[in-house]
Design brief:
The structure holds 4 protein chains of 4 kinds. In chain A, 60% of the residues lie in helices and 0% in strands. Chain A is mainly alpha-helical. The radius of gyration of chain A is 24 Å and the shape is flat. Chain B has a single domain (4-87), classed as Helix Hairpins. Chain B has helices at 4-24, 28-53, 57-87. In chain B, helix 1 runs antiparallel to helix 2 (28-53) and helix 2 packs antiparallel against helix 3. The longest helix of chain B is centred in the C-terminal third of the chain and has 31 residues, at 57-87. Chain C is mainly α. Chain C has a domain at 274-484. Chain C has 21 helices and 2 strands. In chain C, strand 1 and strand 2 form a beta hairpin. In chain C, helix 3 (75-102) runs antiparallel to helix 4, helix 11 (241-266) runs parallel beside helix 13 (299-320) and helix 14 (322-350) packs across helix 21. Classes of the chains: A mainly alpha, B mainly alpha, C mainly alpha, D mainly alpha.
Chain lengths: 118, 100, 484, 661
């Protein structure tokens, strides 16, 4: 039983080692001359403003919640995809019904202004 | 060799930890995490039973539970935000207008 | 992996499905159609509930089941579904002016309410623990939101938060119970659990017993049995009054329906000796509810404690079990629904603008300023107190009679003692309304109750009287209802 | 007619409904006379039913009408049905006749009351409930009436809810109408609990609640002395002690006098309080199977009669004298029930309904004339001013005292001689002594109220203690100007006086004539009057008459004109006088036994109680429950985490209970 997972284990070790070696070697060998500007948080080239530990606009929470709700529905797609070939028409109709319900929610959020980015 | 008992015990421990979090924390978000932990402990039990009884139903239940948990998160966060807006504080020990 | 296609027969599910579809239609209509005044959404919602009621009635006697027997539309479930649909419709009527006075959004409210109705009916129809759980969550989540719906009001928010945290806490226990039963019996279908439990090894498995115990916890929380009743007073007081009315009757009906089915189908009394535990819970609930209600001054809170006590009375019917217990419970739930809606409806009608008259002092002399609301409340409260000839009296007689017939004389005696105690607090508001000079600050000129509200309250009161005077028809119906 | 039995209760219900819905908008006269008309029509219907009953052969004198099936539990069902036999026939005649007269009287008595619609609604509703109680063909329907009359009584005692004190012109402290109503309700509720348990036990035993099936089952299934029947009858008797104000639950009735006087007359004298007696008479089949219960009933009855009579000796409030007298007379009726002299008890119930209603209404006429003042120390000399009232009161007093040939004489004598001939000499002795006391206290009242010189002045303003003169209504502010009332009040007095005079001839002892009433009731009670020799019967009649005459004589000597003799007596025997004046400290004993532990319990839970200490069992029990309730409230802290913890404990307990078993 554990034999089945051995290749997976090897892959895990290799990938961790690869990342660790890359970071470790550059940290050891690279020159280090920190300045105030270099120490700043990377903000895609924009100058960063204020502290990161501040209140976030509450609309972000709304986006997060909507994301969670729609994201979690994806889990139903996996079992569905696994058995899809066995009864394609039936399962397609099922999934259409499912997606339609989601769509109602989507339209509602949209019209209520949940996605407005002002 | 792992038996179903191990999983049952683990899930019971996780469940108790979650319940404990509800009891000892005052921040509703953390209490809520405790509740999520309880639900996931149940998920663990479902998966374990499903695996050992070779009955796939249990795994499907996990999906359902996950969905329900997500919906609970949405409602819970909304409530926390609403309360925070109303009173700038979400300490559950200070929310006691209703009593007696 | 091989897929066996499930038989899809949506017909028995229609009572739950139609409210859900209506909820979606209401949501879409709310956001897609123009216009400021959305009152007609209520009409749409009522039409949906009427359609669901129509199919519910059509399903009577057919005893259909669907989805591998995880949905069973027998007469008991359908009777409960009718009670829930009626409660939902009454709540909509109670809410219209309440919401307008507080400038709350109607569309959202209706969608949530219809969602809750759908979940409750699903729970009543369910014959599978997972479906029961789904139904439970489907109605709990909207109710959490509805409790906090008056979101500028601190009490409403607090009610929602408490309800939410305690509710999900108890749901977790309930779910854990399901998992344990699944582990012990390899099934979540109630009939299959019952079959598995006939093996002694399963029945004596502590996991199995613990699962059953956790189910009691979950159901006990929803119906408001002591010691899981803590949320009830706080949430009932804080939630918007129409929602309190809805919760007190519909939640109870749905959760009791599943409670009855789970314990009468899945755990035959020969296998698990749960009667004693439930009898104990019934006694504690009745006593705690009635005694704590004695000192309340806020009517919503008082009715909350009364709802705890009533959960205890109904539980007696479950302890009795069998045909007699089932029909007694169905009648009691129906009677409780009409009289509680009458009482809460009267309470809503007492308000002016966004001000409510909830305490005994505020209600003083209401018979002069709001004679009709006072009369409706008086009749409903007398019925709740078990005074003949109202519905509550017959319902209590029915439950206690079934208990006596089944040999639970002691339980009936405790019930009677409790209902005698309860008379005090039910009578107190009546005395205040009829025997005290009007409280200061309330308009002397009787403002007419809004028409929708009046319709709901009048229907509830008439039913309270009719079910007391002519319980025959309803009773025959209740007796015809039985779990297959 | 027999199909229309339901009309008898339905008519007052109709009256109540109309007055409830639109009474406020109707002119006063329409509203009032509508209520009277409803009662009169019910009386007409009752007479019709009675005549039809008389036409039936005596071995089948029952009219049974089932309206519909009310509730069904399993194979057993309860009907809404009416049962008219000689017993219920007498009751409906009394209720509707006396009720009609009192309604007429009330039209005059309540003429200054603005809330007349509420009053007549409740009075008619009461009549409906009482008729349901009496006509029911099963115990559940009877229970409906039983609860209903209790509710109406409660509402009507508290009719003057906005007054804290109704005792005009006296320094005595009485409960406010609201508290009195509550007290009545609470105390009778204790009795009702017993009654309910009795009904449950009956249901459990016989599987039925209809009179026919229960009595048939009792006769065929049980021997005399069967324990279950004894328990059942005792529980039902507890209900009767509450409703019919017997020891130890009689404390509510005197306070019930806070209601309007027509209420006192109708509910707390003539009809409702006799419901317990009627119930025992109705259930005589069960009671005859339980000799132990019968003994309890008899002893409780005679003790109540005696104790209430002694308390009545010293009361200063005229209505309270009558109230204690009612308790005492109800004790006589219970005594009759207890010794198996059922028809004698019903006979006394009937005569008492006439003469006690008469006494109350006459007292009401006095109050009407004297601006509601009923403290006898401030009355006196009214004989000339209120001649009709005086004569009617006198007739009522003679009937109550058992003066020969007045109605009360025959009925009381029948009870006493039944007690003697059934071998209960001790009961008989107490009964005769009580009869003497009765004659004494009622003629004390007659003397103090009507005799002697006025102890009041024309134009004197009498008020409730502590009231400010400026708050009086115009009528009361003018002071005392007593005059005889209008015909609406005097006519009922005269008609009732005729009843009090002649009702007794329906049940004359064998040596004087024929006991028609007992013969009429024979199909119900199958009771054979024991044959006694004429000499013994004459002797017993003589002793009864002598007791009455002696009592009247002493009272008239004592209270002739002045009140000095009793003062002298009080000086000689201060402790005895004080004992009686304080009603044996019964309220105080309740306080010590029940109220104090209740408060202690509450304090034990660290609770604040509102500091009002009111006497009586009502508050004692109430406090105990309230204390319990407050302690439960204090658990409901509002802290959600506490709730979660409590729930978790509950989870553990439920698991433990289920898994351990």
């Amino acid at each position: 039983m554990s034999g089945d997972y051995f290749p997976l284990f090897v892959m895990l070790v290799v990938s961790v080692a690869f990342a660790a070696i890359g970071v470790g070697v550059s940290a050891l060998l690279g020159p280090r001359r920190p300045t105030a500007i270099k120490g700043q948080t990377y903000e895609s080239g924009m100058p960063s403003i204020g502290t990161a530990r501040r209140r976030v606009w509450v609309r972000y929470y709304l986006v997060a919640v909507v994301f969670i709700l729609f994201d979690i529905e994806i889990i139903f797609f996996y079992p569905w995809a696994v058995v899809f070939r066995q009864a394609p028409i039936f399962l397609l109709v099922e999934m259409l019904a499912f997606v339609t319900i989601l769509l109602v929610g989507y339209i509602y959020v949209w019209r209520k202004g949940g996605f407005d980015w002002y | 060799m792992l038996t179903v008992t191990h999983f049952t015990v683990l899930s019971a421990i996780l469940f108790s930890l979650g319940a404990l979090a509800v009891l000892i924390r005052r921040n509703p978000l953390i209490m809520f995490m405790g509740i999520e932990l309880m639900l996931n402990a149940v998920n663990l039990a479902f998966v374990a039973f499903s695996r050992f009884m070779e009955n796939m139903d249990g795994q499907v239940f996990v999906f359902i539970v996950l969905t329900v948990a997500a919906a609970e998160v949405a409602v819970g966060l909304a409530l926390v935000v609403a309360i925070f807006r109303a009173r700038d504080n979400v300490d559950m020990d200070e929310i006691d207008l209703l009593k007696g | 992996m091989l897929l066996t296609l499930p038989e899809i027969n949506l017909y028995p599910l229609l009572p739950a499905l139609i409210p859900a579809v209506t909820a979606m239609l209401v949501m879409l209509a709310d956001v897609l159609l123009p216009g400021k005044n959305k009152s007609w959404l209520a009409l749409l919602a009522l039409v949906g509930l009427a359609a669901a009621s129509y199919f519910t009635v059509m399903l009577f006697g057919a005893n259909l089941s669907a989805f591998n027997a995880s949905i069973v539309a027998d007469n008991f479930a359908l009777g409960i579904a009718l009670v829930i649909l009626g409660a939902g419709a009454a709540t909509i009527l109670l809410s219209l002016d309440y919401l307008r006075a507080r400038q709350l959004d109607l569309g959202e409210y209706l969608a949530l309410l219809l969602g809750a109705v759908s979940g409750m009916i699903l729970m009543a129809l369910a014959n599978d623990l997972i479906v029961i759980f789904l139904g439970l969550e489907l109605f709990s989540l909207p109710l959490y939101v509805l409790s906090a719906f008056w979101r500028t009001n601190d009490r409403s928010l607090e009610a929602g938060m408490k309800y939410f945290l305690l509710g999900s806490f108890s749901s977790a226990f309930f779910l854990y119970g399901i998992a344990l039963l699944y582990g012990a019996t390899d099934a979540t279908n109630l009939t299959k659990i019952s079959a598995a439990a006939s093996e002694p090894t399963v029945a004596s498995n502590p996991m199995f017993l613990m699962g059953a115990a956790l189910l009691i916890v979950g159901f006990g929380f929803k119906v408001g049995l002591a010691p899981f009743q803590w949320w009830i007073p706080d949430v009932y007081e804080g939630a918007p009054t129409p929602i309190t009315a809805f919760m007190s009757v519909a939640t109870k009906a749905a959760a009791f329906a599943a409670f009855f089915r789970a314990f009468m189908v899945a755990f035959p009394s020969a296998v698990v000796d749960w009667q004693f535990v439930l009898a104990l819970l019934a006694v504690v609930s009745m006593t705690v509810g009635n005694v704590a209600a004695l000192t309340q001054t806020n009517l919503k809170r008082m009715l909350a404690y009364s709802s705890i006590a009533n959960a205890g009375y109904i539980l007696i019917a479950l302890v009795v079990g069998g045909q007699a217990g089932l029909s007694a419970a169905l009648f009691y739930l129906a009677a409780y629904t009409v009289m509680n809606l009458g009482a809460f409806g009267g309470l809503v009608a007492m308000g002016q603008g966004d001000q409510e008259r909830l305490t005994l002092d505020e209600l003083a002399g209401a018979a002069q300023t709001k004679p009709w609301a006072a009369a409706a409340m008086a009749i409903s409260l007398l019925s709740l107190a078990g005074f003949p000839p109202f519905a509550g009296f017959v319902a209590k007689f029915f439950v206690f009679g079934a208990a006596v017939n089944a040999g639970y004389v002691w339980l009936a005696v405790i019930g009677v003692l409790n209902s005698l105690v309860s008379v005090y607090y039910y009578l107190h508001p009546i005395v205040k309304m009829y025997m005290n000079p009007p409280a200061e600050g309330w308009a002397q000129a009787p403002a007419r109750a809004p028409i929708f509200l009046a319709v709901a309250v009048i229907v509830a009161v008439l039913l309270t009287i009719a079910m007391g005077l002519f319980p025959g028809g309803m009773l025959n119906f209740a007796q015809a209802a039985m779990v297959k | 007619m027999s199909q229309f039995l339901w009309l008898i209760p339905a008519l007052p219900l109709l009256g109540a409904t109309i007055n409830l819905l639109i009474g406020r908008r109707l002119p006063r006269a329409v509203s009032c006379w509508l209520a009277v008309a409803a009662m009169a029509a019910a009386f007409g219907a009752a007479v019709g039913a009675f005549l039809e009953l008389l036409a039936l052969p005596s071995d089948a004198q029952v009219i049974h009408q089932t309206l519909y099936q009310w509730v069904t539990v399993g194979k057993f069902s309860v009907d809404v049905g009416f049962w008219l036999d000689p017993l219920s026939a007498i009751m409906i005649l009394v209720v509707t006749l006396v009720g009609t007269l009192i309604h007429i009287y009330a039209v005059g008595y309540m003429e200054h009351e603005t809330d007349y619609a509420r009053f007549f609604t409740q009075m008619n509703l009461f009549a409906f409930m009482m008729l349901m109680l009496v006509l029911a063909d099963n115990y559940l329907l009877m229970f409906l009436g039983w609860e209903g009359v209790g509710l109406c009584s409660y509402l009507l005692i508290g009719f003057y809810y906005n007054r804290d004190n109704t005792a005009v012109g006296t320094d005595e402290k009485f409960l406010s109408p609201r508290s009195s109503g509550t007290k009545a309700f609470v105390v009778t509720r204790i009795g009702d609990f017993g009654f309910t348990l009795g009904i449950i036990l009956m249901f459990w035993t016989f599987g039925s609640l209809s009179f026919g099936e229960v009595f048939h089952g009792a006769e065929t299934m049980f021997q005399i002395g069967a324990p279950i029947i004894t328990i059942m009858t005792l529980l039902m008797f507890l209900g009767a002690t509450g409703k019919s104000a017997q020891l130890p639950l009689f404390v509510w009735l005197p306070d019930a006098m806070a209601g309007p006087t027509p209420v006192s007359a109708l509910i707390h004298a003539a009809t409702m309080v006799t419901a317990g007696v009627y119930m025992i008479g109705r259930s005589h089949v069960l009671y005859e199977l339980a000799p132990a219960t019968m003994a309890v009933v008899a002893v409780v009855g005679v003790l109540t009669a005696f104790i209430a009579a002694t308390i009545a000796l010293t009361q200063r409030d005229l209505k309270r004298v009558l109230a204690y007298s009612t308790v005492s007379q109800l004790g006589y009726m219970m005594l009759a029930m207890g010794i198996g002299a059922f028809s004698a008890g019903i006979f006394h119930l009937m005569t008492h309904a006439f003469f006690k209603a008469l006494l109350f209404l006459s007292a009401g006429a006095v109050m009407h004339a004297m601006n509601d003042m009923v403290d006898m120390r401030r009355l006196g000399g009214l004989r000339k001013i209120l001649p009709i009232t005086f004569w009617t009161f006198l007739i009522g007093a003679l009937a109550l005292a058992g003066f020969p040939l007045f109605s009360g004489f025959f009925s009381k004598d029948e009870i006493l001689s039944s007690a003697f001939t059934s071998g209960n000499v001790a009961l008989w002795v107490v009964g005769v002594v009580t009869a003497l006391l009765t004659a004494f206290y009622i003629f004390r009242a007659v003397s103090l109220t009507f005799g002697g010189k006025p102890r009041w002045k024309v134009g004197e303003v009498v008020t409730v203690q502590g009231a400010v003169a400026s708050e009086l209504d115009a009528h009361a502010a003018k002071g005392l100007h007593p005059h005889e009332a209008k015909w609406v009040m005097t006519l009922p007095l005269i008609l009732l006086a005729l009843g009090a005079l002649f009702a007794g001839f329906l049940g004359m002892p064998a040596v004087l004539g024929e006991n028609r009433l007992a013969r009429f009731l024979e199909p119900v009670f199958q009771h054979e009057t024991p044959h006694v020799s004429a000499e013994l019967e004459w002797l017993l009649i003589g002793i009864s008459a002598a007791a009455a005459l002696v009592g009247i004589f002493i009272a008239l000597r004592f209270y002739r004109g002045d009140a000095k003799t009793p003062a002298r007596l009080a000086a000689y025997y201060p402790s005895l006088y004080k004992l009686l004046l304080n009603k044996y400290w019964i309220d105080q004993i309740y306080d010590a036994l029940i109220a104090r532990p209740g408060r202690w319990l509450a304090n034990a839970f660290w609770l604040e109680l509102d500091g009002k200490i009111i006497n009586g069992i009502a508050d004692g029990l109430g406090n105990a429950f309230r204390g319990f309730g407050n302690s439960l409230r204090s658990l409901q802290t509002g802290y959600m985490r506490g709730y979660a913890l409590a729930m978790l404990i509950g989870v553990v307990v439920v698991i433990a209970l289920l898994v351990m078993r």
